């Protein structure tokens, strides 16, 4: 009898973890109370950041959620598609039978006929006989796999021409304290022990965690630390958990023939936003976007994940020009009238990038324009409405260009397809 390699042993423990503690911990009865919203895989984001607001809304969307867990992303996307009568199907793939059973119960609670479940491993994609997909979600999965690049390349081969993906990987600086805990616990309770035993030891450690432990100082993990057994296990006991700096992540994409169409939110990766000193901003202005992102991650120190929409290299679909009078602005989630209420008297919008709150300057007229955005009015309609209030066309388009550019970079205002 051969001894499993360390990589195989870790993968065996990972599979056991998600059977014992499906993640995230969800109760299907909660589906009647709320829909969890996030990125990636928000339908309006997919339409904009992947398809450039040019894909007809009556064209069926075939999506794969690769490593769906208990179903957050899949339930969100399938529900959004059902609400706007978007034809298509969401296929949920996961190797954990327990996680899939929870996701299925959540779909049943919402009566979602546009969602299908497949049990299988991303490590063995070629054996699953999956068809092609317009969109693939792989959120919080790649960093747990033996060979992330090979799996990502396998997923890329399942994309239709012009398709894209939504990805999330862990980032190191915002996870300060996590890997220290994982190292300590691997010695105290090796990953070869049963998940129930490991969890017991982890809980005991957490009850007596020294005040100096870096995990105490990190405010990024309320969802894990308050997320029951599954949340705690996934945070500090996961047997394979690597993090990617933004440079590492971009290199991973490059190695698999992909490129980012959007790092979420784009403004988060521009250090000029939180470096008001003119001399510093001048230096930032002359940097390429990759170097800007590297500086932003290193300076803020709180990025715990990188979320991106990606497409095949050199295949990005450019959205319509926001100055086009026929373009249709749409609020990503918060209604324009509600976002306008968040603007302070000094015309700044306090915006939270995780635990970092940054005052984002907006044009004075933002409070008047935002409530007009309803997903039906065109940019030309907005200009006409503002003309009735005394704003010239030239003035409107000057203001609109600044307003849209800023709120697009915050993923708050996008464009939708006109067809």
Automatic annotation (TrEMBL):
InterPro entries: Methyltranfer_dom, SAM-dependent_MTases_sf. Residues 24-33 have a biased composition (Basic and acidic residues). Gene3D superfamilies: Vaccinia Virus protein VP39. It holds the Pfam family Methyltransf_31. Residues 64-165 form the Methyltransferase domain. GO terms for biological process: methylation. GO terms for molecular function: methyltransferase activity. Keywords: Methyltransferase, S-adenosyl-L-methionine, Transferase. This is Methyltransferase domain-containing protein.
